[in-house]
């Protein structure tokens, strides 16, 4: 993506969060307050302490701890009221999960790395957050046994700019929304923007919105499902283009 412009990581993330909040009407006061109250350092694993020595900046670590500004804007785009059941694809260390849990009725989250699952469960439990169910598995499959979901959000990038029927079927019929990154793969990352899917009275609208103005990159959503990516030889390719798949290709950790 030739027009990619990297985001400024040096600014304190609360300043970025407050700036992003001005773009929403009404102003998401509760969400801003959660970013002020929930200690991001609580979700930084020891092995990342050198990588993230100053958790007050907007730095992230792909697949584990996303940039706070990214999390804020994506959660804000869900327009949570407090009664929703939310599906989260990609738990990471649980920071975004904690934010979501304080904004909705219940969060069902899926993470493919068992170590991250246990870490996130531990950190959420220490904060007394109980309205969360975290499971190990393929985030692209969703959790049909707990559907329908009022909201769905993914932290890893889709390989296509639309959602297949199996995920659409897990969205509530009346008024539901899905937010996920999507874009083009290059050098181990997906450069792109946000796919927004809205379902109202059974009718579906899917579009890529210019939420971050091509300033961000995301890790691929590793999955054999159509929206995922599969590792082949030396790069990820869209899983929909892979005909002969081997199980170990699906679960390469970036």
From TrEMBL:
Pfam family, one: PCMT
Keyword vocabulary terms for this entry: Cytoplasm, Methyltransferase, S-adenosyl-L-methionine, Transferase
Origin superkingdom: Bacteria
CDD domains in UniProt: AdoMet_MTases
EC code(s) of this entry: 2.1.1.77
GO cellular component: cytoplasm
SUPFAM superfamilies, per the entry: S-adenosyl-L-methionine-dependent methyltransferases
Gene3D superfamilies: Vaccinia Virus protein VP39 (3.40.50.150)
InterPro entries: PCMT, SAM-dependent_MTases_sf
GO biological process: methylation
Family, as annotated: Belongs to the methyltransferase superfamily. L-isoaspartyl/D-aspartyl protein methyltransferase family.
Protein name: Protein-L-isoaspartate O-methyltransferase
């Amino acid at each position: 993506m030739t027009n990619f412009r990297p985001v400024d990581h040096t600014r304190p993330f609360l300043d970025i969060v407050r700036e992003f909040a001005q773009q929403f009407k009404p102003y998401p006061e509760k969400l801003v307050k959660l970013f002020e109250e929930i200690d991001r350092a609580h979700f930084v694993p020891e092995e990342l302490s050198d990588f993230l020595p100053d958790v007050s900046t907007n730095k992230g670590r792909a697949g584990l701890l996303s940039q706070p500004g990214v999390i804020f804007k994506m959660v804000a785009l869900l327009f949570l009221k407090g009664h929703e059941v939310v599906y989260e694809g990609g738990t990471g260390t649980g920071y975004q999960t904690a934010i979501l849990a304080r904004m909705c009725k219940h969060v069902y989250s899926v993470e493919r790395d068992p170590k991250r699952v246990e870490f996130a469960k531990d950190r959420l439990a220490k904060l007394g957050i109980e309205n969360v169910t975290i499971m190990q598995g393929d985030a692209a499959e969703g959790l049909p046994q707990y559907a329908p979901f009022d909201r769905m959000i993914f932290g890893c990038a889709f390989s296509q700019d639309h959602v297949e029927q199996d995920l659409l079927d897990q969205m509530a019929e009346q008024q539901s929304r899905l937010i996920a990154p999507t874009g083009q793969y290059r050098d181990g990352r997906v450069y792109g923007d946000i796919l927004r899917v809205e379902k109202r009275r059974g009718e579906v609208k899917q579009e890529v919105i210019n939420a971050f103005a091509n300033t961000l990159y995301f890790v691929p959503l590793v999955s054999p499902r159509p929206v995922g990516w599969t590792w082949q030889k030396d790069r990820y390719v869209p899983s929909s283009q892979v005909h002969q798949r081997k199980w170990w290709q699906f679960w390469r950790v970036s």
